[in-house]
Amino acid sequence: MTAKLNQGQPYVLGLFRIVIGLLFACHGAASLFGVLGGAMGGGTVPTGAWPGWYAAVIQLVGGGLVLLGVGTRSAAFISSGSMAYAYFAMHQPEALFPLQNQGESSVLFCWALLLLVFTGPGALALDGLFSSRGTAAEEKKSEEPAAAVAA
Questions:
Q1: Three-class SS string for the chain?
Q2: pTM, whole model, 2 decimals?
Q3: N or C end of the chain, less CB within 10 A?
Q4: Are 9 and 17 within 8 A, CB to CB?
Q5: Cβ distance 54 to 84 under 8 Å?
């Protein structure tokens, strides 16, 4: 059973990345363009307003990159940091626990994106298409037996 689950791991990780990226990008699009209900129940964030507008840009761009699997680790790292800032600067001063201060989405996005920093994009990422040529050569080198080293 574990072997079967391990075979599907890259694909499930890829789907996880896609869903997290899509949801994160939707938050940015709502804040910047007023779509999907807009920012905080309607409207948009004023251009250049700190920190909301900058957070929304990070959400839209970072979410899009994570969704596509392009520069996933870097985009996820910056996006995770922005969510940590959002939690500690905006939510945590209201109350200690995320359930009390409406910071659940910030915490969940922060940890989900941080997970992608360490796991990578998984399957179905555009980065895999661009780096497939280099990895084939690297795999071939790693399969060659190591030369004996004289002591």
A1: CHHHHHHHHHHHHHHHHHHHHHHHHHHHHHHHHCCCCCHHHCCCCCCCCCCHHHHHHHHHHHHHHHHHCCCHHHHHHHHHHHHHHHHHHHHCCCCCCHHHHCCHHHHHHHHHHHHHHHHCCCCCCHHHHHHHHHHHHHHHHHHCCCCCCCC
A2: 0.83
A3: C
A4: no
A5: no
